[in-house]
């Protein structure tokens, strides 16, 4: 799958982004592995393919960065496009794979790979560089942010995207928690955000605030639709997205709408009733006045 060299993109003095081709959701076709490297030591964050050529290409890239000893592997969350290559890296480097316990339970690795897993500690060090592992659920229940304040970088997994969009969907995802995670990014004090997909984001706080506003705009759009008439989940998805979503991302869009509806249900702004023919039908609990708004982009 990947015989070509993997790029080594310096995003901070000791932090590198390495886009690796992975089977992920369009429009992305790669997942970012991150390398923290100093004085011959390295920490690797995420690796989303177990393709042997890609594994070797990444190892060559790590060595090209001057790393002689990898001291830790970190998974921001359990999804395969972020973890599939970590068992192979564990076998090569003989170091633990750190992951939050809630996501550790969701991995389906063989027993030999599962033995590599360890609960993520609050902090790690790479040749004196402090890495803070923050539990920030949203995209998954055990999602981690890796804050590297000395480098002015926060690695945010799938909570921000430099390409495409972020999806949050049950049973893994929880929209209210995701909003808290975006607030945590904005409050981290780190200038640069390293997303799971796409290029680095130069203003982490602004990107987090903009994405939260975008999600809130999506909820307002859904409330507008329900003010017109009650609708099923599928009808809301069709009305919101139409044919703008690639077929491969349609399920993610549906699950994201479902996560929004769960948040609206929990706040009492939407109710639902089961219909034997149509399934759950969502409606507003009472008539409300909602001002005109510009459409929200996917």
From TrEMBL:
<dbReference type="InterPro" id="IPR050662">
    <property type="entry name" value="Sec-metab_biosynth-thioest"/>
</dbReference>
<feature type="domain" description="Metallo-beta-lactamase">
    <location>
        <begin position="30"/>
        <end position="197"/>
    </location>
</feature>
<protein>
    <submittedName>
        <fullName>Glyoxylase, beta-lactamase superfamily II</fullName>
    </submittedName>
</protein>
<dbReference type="Pfam" id="PF00753">
    <property type="entry name" value="Lactamase_B"/>
</dbReference>
<dbReference type="Pfam" id="PF17778">
    <property type="entry name" value="WHD_BLACT"/>
</dbReference>
<dbReference type="InterPro" id="IPR036388">
    <property type="entry name" value="WH-like_DNA-bd_sf"/>
</dbReference>
<dbReference type="InterPro" id="IPR041516">
    <property type="entry name" value="LACTB2_WH"/>
</dbReference>
<dbReference type="InterPro" id="IPR036866">
    <property type="entry name" value="RibonucZ/Hydroxyglut_hydro"/>
</dbReference>
<dbReference type="InterPro" id="IPR001279">
    <property type="entry name" value="Metallo-B-lactamas"/>
</dbReference>
């Amino acid at each position: 799958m990947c015989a070509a060299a993997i790029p080594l993109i310096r995003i901070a003095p000791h932090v590198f982004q390495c886009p690796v081709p992975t089977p992920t959701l369009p429009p992305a076709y790669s997942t970012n592995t991150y390398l923290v490297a100093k004085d011959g030591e390295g920490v690797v964050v995420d690796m989303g393919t177990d393709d042997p050529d890609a594994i070797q290409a990444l190892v060559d890239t790590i060595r090209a960065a001057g790393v002689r000893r990898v001291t830790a592997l970190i998974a921001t969350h359990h999804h395969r496009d972020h973890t599939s290559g970590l068992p192979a890296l564990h076998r090569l480097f003989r170091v633990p794979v750190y992951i939050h316990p809630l996501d550790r339970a969701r991995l389906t690795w063989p027993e030999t790979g599962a033995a590599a897993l360890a609960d993520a500690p609050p902090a790690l060090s790479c040749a004196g560089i402090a890495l803070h592992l923050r539990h920030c659920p949203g995209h998954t229940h055990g999602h981690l942010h890796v804050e590297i304040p000395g480098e002015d970088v926060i690695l945010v997994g799938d909570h921000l995207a430099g390409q495409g969009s972020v999806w949050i969907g049950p049973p893994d995802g929880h929209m209210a928690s995701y909003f808290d995670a975006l607030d945590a990014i904005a409050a981290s004090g780190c200038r640069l955000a390293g997303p799971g997909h796409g290029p680095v984001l130069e203003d982490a706080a602004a990107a987090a605030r903009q994405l939260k506003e975008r999600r809130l705009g999506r909820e307002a759009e859904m409330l507008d639709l329900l003010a017109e008439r009650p609708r099923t989940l599928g009808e809301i998805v069709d009305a919101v997205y139409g044919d703008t979503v690639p077929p491969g991302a349609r399920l993610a869009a549906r699950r994201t709408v479902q996560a929004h509806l769960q948040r609206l249900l929990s706040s009492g702004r939407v109710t639902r009733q089961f219909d034997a023919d149509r399934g759950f039908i969502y409606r507003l609990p009472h008539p409300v006045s909602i001002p005109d708004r510009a459409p929200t982009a996917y």
